[in-house]
């Protein structure tokens, strides 16, 4: 779907059937998405380059509307942010991800982590830390298995506030991951003040990596980020890995973890259980 003028959203369902949805209609659809059970989570593996084992699964929200079909989170998350519905959706995602992980600890792997995306407005909410605490208590998972993916852009408005919240989150025992690293505007100097565990190198830097070109700008940036991670004792995770070449180059550069279509696409919960063993043997 793509945004059109005058607040209309144009959708393409199937091949040709196009129809338009007013923004307000869209908003009201989204308002009822949770109670109508239209939201679900997909999961994508993050693996270790040392042994190929799955370290964590990133939870990615999906919205399946009876008329609109699957609506991309790239579209409805911004709408949820603007309308404040993100509070409701974000809390649902957090609780559902933790609940699912608890189940998998008992059935597939007791060391698996879950990585949950946090939006800017959700992070700014005064009771955000409390919500995380509640999700941990409700699901009874060990906090070290919950990773929260934050972005640099969430910190720009009030860096000190951001650092304080991160510290409170760390006190709960969870891990903090910086998503889309390298695309934001925050200063590198903040990095030393952020209590970060994992740094996700944005896929835009990974896309053009190749074995025959170690001199490209992207290759230099990726190597620099990985070196910096080592210096800061932060785990380097490359996202958007789509080819074996990219994987081999990243391994060569000493990257710790990778995620992307080459390793595994996001899948529904039932499929995670089936696929789990093939991820191991890749
Ligand atoms: P993101 O957090 O950067 O997530 C990565 C996106 O890249 C996902 O798209 C994923 O499916 C896709 N991806 C994974 N591997 C590859 C690859 O190898 N190549 C390419 N081209 N793409 C890959 P998705 O699921 O459509 O999510 C888009 C964005 O929506 C996410 O970007 C995130 O910002 C947001 N989002 C998704 N789920 C949630 C959620 O539960 N809460 C919040 N606040 N935001 C979410
Ligand atoms: Ca993410
Ligand atoms: Ca990302
Ligand atoms: Ca992104």
UniProtKB/TrEMBL annotation:
<feature type="domain" description="EAL">
    <location>
        <begin position="23"/>
        <end position="280"/>
    </location>
</feature>
<protein>
    <submittedName>
        <fullName>EAL domain-containing protein</fullName>
    </submittedName>
</protein>
